[in-house]
Amino acid sequence: MFPDDIQVRPHAAPNWLHPIIKPRHKRAIEGVGEPDPRTMTKRAAVLMLFSGDATAETLPDDAGVLLTHRTPTMRTHSGQMAFPGGRIDPEDRGPVEAALREANEETGLDPATVHPVATMGLVSVRSNGYPVHPVIGYSDSHPQTWPASKDETDDVFVAAIEELLEPDRRITVGWHDWTGPAFKINGYLVWGFTASLLSSVFATSGWEKEWDRERVHELTDVLARSRNGERHG
What residue ranges carry the coiled-coil annotation (predicted)? Predict the structure, then answer.
């Protein structure tokens, strides 16, 4: 469907990332919907950029993942935590190139510093059904990034994976009849699509620690105590 997209290079991933990139089956991702066939012309791509010691066999202490905070004044998904990403433009050769382009526009990330190592199964943002291609990238050192597009992003940082895995940073949030995983990091709440992708990756990788999945926290209450600044509910 996409001619000559940038090829993924699994061999460029360190051994500690192999549990994520080796599975070929489509992963079941909690809290994320199936793509709506009527929206397939509105495909998007996100970059899940992992960084850390290239020589480590198991999850290294410096392992991190790039996250952004969407500017609260945006019309859609305002104030939410997200991976860099956006719509696949007609000029893009495919999801990988689109994810790298969007990451560059939003965070200043130099695409030359990124090894695209895998793609996940096509999923959708539950709120609108739009199809999204998650692209897994790797950088051996924490990349230089900043809020390059203030209209879209007002904070960019590499979140320490060890912190995200801590049981006291993981909760289940609920809103009406929806529930999903969430993470607390740097005063922000990561929830929804982004948290579901992270949770799926952590479960697949075997890095996960036991945490309280049973208690459901009211989403609006948790957001009110966060730095997100979301207009939700």
Answer: none
